[in-house]
Recover the amino acids of this structure.
């Protein structure tokens, strides 16, 4: 919504287009509908039907394009160049990141001085927004990112000292299945994020079961990364409460039933 509010009528006269594994597209579609701006969302093959149905419910035109999120991005950009629509990135955009600071605002209003906040990472827009909010509202709080090992593009980028584009990515966590982090997010992570932990597919699925059965929370696998990462963090070394950001609750019901029955 924040990004769309910064744009003039002239800039969005031909509509907006994005690539998304679902959650960014949902936010953009809802904001576009409120402003009566046509929105198109390209989602990669394998995107849960529940996300596609919600996108359509919010008024977006949805097309399944590309084997991966990164391929869908290229196709969305090419479409924008051809038809004059405005391409809006899900994370490589200053105003998208600024909009994501509201996530941090909610965290630090509810828990004013946490010792640590753990945030799942896909392209890096979410953790960037939380980090910027932390810098203002709770500077002593540490930020740790969490990625799944099969799509740990930020982890490998930070290790290499420059952005890395993974040749292969493999995970059921579609919300964080990104081959390369954004440049803005990478630079912010280099400067402000304590470290990035990686978790396995098994870790994600076990965490999902725990959250559903014990906490009565039904997240998508991407959102489980932060909680799963706790097993790899010395939580006693942080002074204050620990917050895990669980991002996304749009899990495919067949996948959910399969994991819960496993």
């Amino acid at each position: 919504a924040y990004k769309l509010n910064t744009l003039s009528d002239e800039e969005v006269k031909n509509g907006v287009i994005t690539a998304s594994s679902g959650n960014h597209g949902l936010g953009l579609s809802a904001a576009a509908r409120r402003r009566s701006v046509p929105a198109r969302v390209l989602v990669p093959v394998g995107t849960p039907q529940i996300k596609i149905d919600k996108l359509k419910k919010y008024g977006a035109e949805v097309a399944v394009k590309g084997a991966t999120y990164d391929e869908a991005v290229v196709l969305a950009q090419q479409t924008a160049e051809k038809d004059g629509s405005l391409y809006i990135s899900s994370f490589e955009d200053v105003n998208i990141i600024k909009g994501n600071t509201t996530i941090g605002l909610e965290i630090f209003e509810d828990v004013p001085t946490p010792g640590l906040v753990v945030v799942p990472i896909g392209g890096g827009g979410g953790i960037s927004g939380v980090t910027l909010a932390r810098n203002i509202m709770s500077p002593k709080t540490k930020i740790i990112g969490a990625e799944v090992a099969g799509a740990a593009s930020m982890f490998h980028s930070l290790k290499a000292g420059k952005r890395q584009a993974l040749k292969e990515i493999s995970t059921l966590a579609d919300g964080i299945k990104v081959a390369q982090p954004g440049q803005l997010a990478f630079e912010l992570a280099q400067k402000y994020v304590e470290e990035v932990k990686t978790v396995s597919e098994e870790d994600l699925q076990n965490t999902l079961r725990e959250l559903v059965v014990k906490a009565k929370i039904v997240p998508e696998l991407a959102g489980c990364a932060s909680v799963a990462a706790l097993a790899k963090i010395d939580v006693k070394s942080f002074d204050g409460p620990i917050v895990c950001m669980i991002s996304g609750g749009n899990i495919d019901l067949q996948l959910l039933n399969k994991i819960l029955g496993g």
User: Anything to note?
Assistant: The two ends are 39 Å apart (CA to CA).
